Amino acid sequence: MNLKRGVSITLGANIVFAFSQWVIIAGLNHLGSVEDVGRYAYSITLAGFFLTVGQMGLRQYLLSHSACSNHLEQAMSARVLTSFLAWFVLVIYASVSVDHSYFYLVLLLGLAKFVENISDIAHGLYQRNLKIAEIAYSRYGRSFWTPLVFLGIFYLTASITWACIGLIVCWGVLFAKYDRPALLVQKQAPLNKTPLLEMLKRSTPLGITNVLVLLAVSLPLFLLAEFVTDVELGQYASVFYFVTAASLILQSVLQVVSPVLVTHLSKGEQVAAKRLVVYSYLLAGSYGVFGVAAAMLIGEWVVAFIYGDQFVGLGYLTVLAATINFALSIQAVGGIVLTAHGVFNYQMYVMVLSVIVSAVGGYLLIASYGLAGAFYAGALTALVNALLFGIRVALEIQHNEKNTCLTHHQ
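Structure for Membrane protein involved in the export of O-antigen and teichoic acid, as requested:
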């Protein structure tokens, strides 16, 4: 596969997809209120956390050299089963702990995330087979129809609940059109308990890591909700979507780099693998620095223009958000490199530490600095992760080079 072509295909799709996420948040700000953004952000973050548990790290596992053909054939069955169980647990949790005003919104967004999980594993099957263009087409379709359906229904009904119902239907139709053909690219076998359980056992560290990543990123939002009003919560969510959108753009590179890196490692091409890792880090670093510079220059104008007068004076938050994006970009490269090398448990242990840093740092910083403290906590957590991932990546590369030298001498 041509790396540049693959990146260019997904770059366009992910830029459009990132823009569509902004359209939803900006649309809620303009058609509704900042409070609506806060309710939506809190509900989708909570639902997303539980459904991320349901992902069980399966997509990342499919992109490691550990995944065999028997596992690939059980991927969809495993994802449907684990996602349903995760949604069921979400229902129980929401019944006990979630405020009545959020209850139905959380459950509906959980169903939407269930459908998204099914599309995600289909994308993993495409990715494993280097069918990158198919992922891009799916992204384009979702980018166009999601804001159109969600905001269109919200405009007609003034109800986020009805908008979320429309979202579920929309994503179901998009799966049938764009993602279901992945099951033809990678044939799926009838459910077989033995390889399915074996695959889930191996992917569990990655699944736990994903949950911990999301928890570490989401904790500032949950902690902030205890200290501030829905308006400030909406302001945080609106600005933080810059981080979400920026990370989607970087995925354009990483979802192409990942299978190529696995191929190099499987063939023992250590020099090519190292070169790809170095280029990926340089790209991520440059991308992060560019984001910080752009936020410093035009951040104030951008948030006021996109979100309205309630965001005047909050430009400094975009600089903090860009700093988080810089650290997350470096962390993301480390994550895909370690996954390609089959280093799963280490990532899990790092993310356990990350959650502790996010929780303790988030509480102290939010208590001291309010809204800005949530961004400080996010930046601190991501920087710690990036550093620890980078150290292990360097050790893995050094280990591979040493083994290569020993092989040549023999």
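Residues 3-404 form one domain.
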